[in-house]
Design goal:
One of its GO terms (molecular function) is double-stranded DNA binding. This is Putative DD34D transposase. Pfam families: HTH_48 (PF17906), HTH_Tnp_Tc3_2 (PF01498), Transposase_1 (PF01359). By secondary structure, this protein is of the alpha/beta class. It has three domains: about 1-50, Arc Repressor Mutant, subunit A (Orthogonal Bundle); about 70-105; about 125-165 and about 180-335, 2-Layer Sandwich (Nucleotidyltransferase, domain 5). The protein has helices at about 5-15, 20-35, 40-50, 65-80, 85-95, 95-105, 125-140, 215-230, 230-235, 250, 255-260, 280-290, 300-310, 315-325, 325-335; strands at about 110, 115-120, 150-160, 185-195, 200-205, 240-245, 265. The strands form two sheets. Strands 5-4-3-6-7 form a five-stranded mixed beta sheet. Strands 1-2 form a two-stranded antiparallel ribbon. Helix 5 (about 85-95) packs across helix 6 and helix 7 (about 125-140) crosses helix 15 (about 325-335). The protein is globular and about 55 Å long. The two termini are about 35 Å apart.
């Protein structure tokens, strides 16, 4: 929250008592204070607190950072980067790692496909997944569009990809000690966009560079140039459908306006659904399996590794990742919206 946290929480309580839901409250606050004032996820956490009968929003009068503020900041970190590790959150907020884990557990979050998602989907989440998947299924049956789809996402690439292995020991025998990886491993953010034929465009961000709405819109312009060069048929025919998840930089007002200017059709994607994002369930999964045990000496080494990884994958690999979406949509409908088991 960019404004005073306590002030925002009082407004959330006021809007809750007026009968607004978390999304409506978030929209009203952000219209006044700006897009970064509060996220839907943080609002949902406070609304859950209010429903339990606890309306205390005032910072506790004691030394140290208030617990409620820590919760806000932890949820903000996840909202800004759904791939962030709990160790990195602890380091950036200067709090104990177990504190982060405790708050995430209380908030009902877990990691799925390296993405933070609610442990249990709400009824609305389940219905959104069913309705969106059913709509996309019917559309694809009438007019197949998966070969016109461009999808993209972000992933942290670590330089040291240690694989922790379970060791067995006899009763009474000391366990083998294995050095833990550093709490803040060197890493670089990868942004990548691809379709059923292969990689269209990717970028490795500079150290310290984060993805906000302004930077993401700049990336979209570079993606546009790459599509015009590598996939001119998508521009010259019916156009393409653009798929992305619901991370804040992807869905902000600035980004929506930029996508409108570009004339791109944005495909619906249900919230909290990495199991329906081709990058998460297919590309990044294969990439991480390839990286396990690999040590990269520098950013240049990382660049070379990724370039080779993308080039060595046959077209069938990318085709399978995109074309399997229809089957996944059907499974979500068949199992009443619950997460797909990989």
């Amino acid at each position: 929250m960019s404004e005073n946290n306590e002030e925002i929480r009082y407004i959330l309580k006021f809007l809750y008592k007026k009968g607004k839901n978390a999304t409506q409250a978030t929209n009203e606050i952000c219209e006044v204070y700006g897009d970064d004032a509060v996220s839907v996820r943080v609002a949902q956490q406070w609304f859950a607190r209010f429903r339990s009968g606890n309306f205390d929003v005032k910072d506790a009068p004691r030394s140290g950072r208030p617990i409620v503020e820590k919760v806000d900041e932890i949820m903000e970190k996840i909202d800004q980067d759904r791939h962030i590790s709990s160790h990195d959150i602890a380091k950036e907020l200067n709090i104990h790692h177990q504190t982060v884990l405790n708050h995430l557990k209380k908030a009902g979050y877990k990691k799925k496909l390296d993405v933070w998602v609610p442990h249990e989907l709400s009824v609305k989440n389940l219905m959104d997944r069913i309705n969106i998947c059913d709509s996309l299924l019917k559309r694809n049956e009438i007019e197949p569009f998966l070969k016109r789809m461009v999808t993209g996402d972000e992933k942290w690439i670590k330089y040291d990809n240690n694989v922790r292995k379970r060791s067995w020991s006899k009763r009474g025998e000391a366990q083998q000690m294995v050095a833990k990886p550093g709490l803040t491993p060197r890493k670089v953010m990868l942004s990548v966009w691809w379709d059923w034929k292969g990689i269209i465009h990717y970028e490795l961000l500079q150290p310290g560079r984060t993805i906000d709405s302004t930077f993401y819109c700049q990336q979209l312009m570079r993606l546009k140039q790459a599509i015009e060069k590598k996939r001119p048929e998508l521009i010259n025919r019916k156009g393409f459908v653009f798929h992305q998840d619901n991370a804040r930089p992807h869905t902000s007002l600035m980004t929506r306006q930029k996508l409108g200017e570009l004339g791109w059709e944005v495909l619906m994607h249900p919230p909290y659904s990495p199991d329906l994002a081709p990058s998460d369930y297919h590309l990044f999964r294969s990439m991480q399996n390839s990286l396990n045990g690999v040590k990269l000496a520098s950013r240049e080494a990382c660049e070379n590794y990724l370039s080779q990884f993308f080039a060595e994958k046959p077209e069938k690999f990318y085709t399978d990742g995109i074309m399997s979406l229809a089957e996944k949509w059907q499974k979500v409908v068949d199992q009443n919206g619950t997460y797909l088991v990989h």
